[in-house]
Records
---
Amino acid sequence: MESSSVMPSTTEARPNSATTAITIKDFAFGTPITVAPGATVTVTNQDSADHTVTADQGQAFDAKVKGSGGTATFTAPSRPGTYAFHCTHHPNMHGTLTVK
Ligand SMILES: [Cu+2]
């Protein structure tokens, strides 16, 4: 592939970004995302192992994502706040979801 045009680099973090996707890769949840209350968050798992996106506290959300390109969705909490989450299969995997 030859890139003949200059692509602007627009990967800056923006608090109100419409990004509602989490990509799991190398046993990590990637860059923390901020979503609107009640937003649908899509999770893609690029690892071969299965993962989950499970809220640390309460039952705010719990998505199971099959390995090798599996996807799942969950509904973000309706209450604004910062929600820590983890993978139930790999307790060392941690992420953060901000709702506002
Ligand atoms: Cu995992």
---
Amino acid sequence: MEPELVLINPWIHDFAAYDLWSKPLGLLYLAAYLRDSGFKVHLIDCLDIHHPEMMKTPGFLQPTRRKYGTGKFWRQEVVKPPGLEHIPRPYSRYGISPKLFLKELQKVKNPSAILITSMMTYWYPGVKEAIALCRKAHPRVPVILGGLYAKLCEHHALRFSGADKIITQGGMQAIKVAVEMLDYSGTKKAKALTSLDDLPFPAFDLLRAIDYVCILTSMGCPYRCKYCASPLINPRFLRRDPAHIMEEVIYWHKDYKIRDFAFYDDALLVDSENHICIFLEKLVKLNLGLRFHTPNALHVKEITPDVAYLINKAGFRTIRLGLETSDPGMHRELDMKINEGEFERAVRNLQNAGFPKNEIGAYILAGLPGQSCESVLDTIEFAAKVGAMPYLAEYSPIPHTPLWENAVAQSEYDISAEPLFHNNTLLPCWPAQKRAFFPKLKQRARELRKEMSIR
Ligand code: B12
Ligand code: SF4
């Protein structure tokens, strides 16, 4: 009999969480690869909104769902962890009830190992809670932790997560290491991983229902922005064959009737004529009526008239541009990603291609060490004036990034000792006075979005 594995997507513990096409894509890739390697894989998704028993669980309100498969998660308010008591907002565990999680764990009688993923560094309480329950259900089964918290906060994870083993590699290497660790020599063998095209399609079929599919056409990013972890997670920029991407999209659409796809790429449009445009041009000819979403920002520089036209024709919705700031000095210092005039040109190209105003948004970073509130406000006004809806993205400091030392120096929180303080809601690298002004900035962005959507 093939060995059984339990794969877990843990809860989110946070002040806010929203299903903006949020799926544990890394874990689903790992699940597919392990299945192809001969393991029997059980997935427990703590963020499952379709679990039938949740409807009967007291204390939980049915999560509302919105457009294109997005929406709220199940949620239960929990006590704030030490250090966050002063924040005047409810803190919740997002996802199914712990009782139901335990029940799901107990359904697998004799697993050989439990593998658990992690995302945001400050979401580790969900990882810890899930591992504690794994110990209860399966005391002698090894627990292996991978994903971003494991990679970015290795020492913290070793001390506090409760896992037996921590996998700190990123990309395909993480999968290779996990397979070696599981040391199984059955008769079935998955493809050796030499390129991204050797990866099987992520195992979305293990989810109870598929509302949308997340797609990764590349790993890494050629830029080196000082606030971003992408270059640490995937130091090389790797891309899939456009034909393989097409095969995957057709597979989910034909076999599972999926219409909504969210790209998880860090650099979807970079060198687009040799990559994503090849796939999109073929897709347009098939006229399948699909919708594509880019919850991660697109690179402003890459939105040429041709690219704007093609992504519109292909069915892109909810465009998000990575503006970050309208201050050229900050761009020179932090990311070198936008030169003067490029944002205006990108928005114009999108409008000319037929995107309505309410589908063009710009992410604006707020809370960077040393950044002023005026600079954020100027950027909000600038984005709206140019014709893009302003969306604030509060800065989350990330260990090992070039901006980290500066973030540590400027933060009133002990961000090096406690990942909970990386939470973007805290604006951890701003002093109290600027934090107090933040609701006004948020309000201004909201007002402008409202005005723009009625105009
Ligand atoms: C997609 C994405 C999102 C999506 C949602 C993702 C989700 N599942 O919920 C959206 C757009 C909603 C999002 C939002 C945000 N995000 Co985000 N996001 C990403 C992104 C680009 C990709 C993550 C991903 O899925 N990658 C693809 C998979 C295949 O890779 P992976 O998960 O690393 O998995 C691989 C390995 O780690 C391994 N693996 C994974 N799990 C396991 C388990 C085991 C056992 C093993 C062995 C291996 C393994 O296998 C995989 C195969 O290669 C990362 C950046 C990046 N490049 O990673 C940022 C990132 C995670 N986000 C980040 C941030 C800051 C945010 C926001 C706070 C932004 C903001 N200010 O608003 C919000 C917060 C969201 C919220 N509160 O709900 C930061 C992390 C910050 C932190 N302190 O941890 C990152 C790193 C980007 C950055 N700035 O550098 N995000
Ligand atoms: S362009 Fe985006 S993904 Fe690339 S390094 Fe900069 S912030 Fe990260």
